[in-house]
Amino acid sequence: NQCYRDLGWDAWGPWSDCSRTCGGGASYSLRRCLNRGNCDGKNIRYRTCSNTDCPAESGDFRAQQCSAHNDIKYQGVTYEWVPAPYDPAVPCALRCQAKGWSLMVELAPKVLDGTRCRSDAFDMCISGVCQVRRIFSCLCQFPVFQAFLHRLVHDNCRNSTNPQITSLY
């Protein structure tokens, strides 16, 4: 019960800045337990933000994170790093492969918030955990839904200067 879970909590705080400026990121809001740390539920919630496409030249977000390690020696050698093939056991670890080599390394235990769990899905990593989308409140770029949800969604999206998919995780 939502009402029961909110007992003992302060109001939700403001949403943080988005973790990305384009391509889909994450924002969070915090609340404080007023009951000496004895509250049901979580003190943090997340939502997606900056869901507009990034310019093509900006490249893949996970690839950017791998390439940030290009100037750092690994076991005494400098490599050019690219994303390693998807591993369902650790979808939110920064696993990279040395370009032209079979060497695959976990360069960080978690990718930056807003990184897609895998390239062919909209699920994203938040705090190192792959989060599955649950609630969609704006489906502006999906024309098949626009007619069906016109009154609920489309008018709000059309009047927005920055139409987005907003999801809560």
TrEMBL record:
Source organism, top-level taxon: Eukaryota
Lineage, opening ranks: Eukaryota, Metazoa, Chordata, Craniata, Vertebrata
Protein name, per record: ADAMTS-like 3
Subcellular location: Secreted
Pfam families: TSP_1
Keywords in alphabetical order: Disulfide bond, Secreted
The organism of origin for this protein: Sphaeramia orbicularis
Biological process annotations from GO: extracellular matrix organization
Cysteine disulfide partners in this protein: C18-C49, C22-C54, C33-C39
GO CC annotations, alphabetized: extracellular matrix; extracellular region
Transmembrane regions listed in the UniProt entry: none
Matching InterPro entries: ADAMTS/ADAMTS-like, ADAMTS_ADAMTS-like, TSP1_rpt, TSP1_rpt_sf
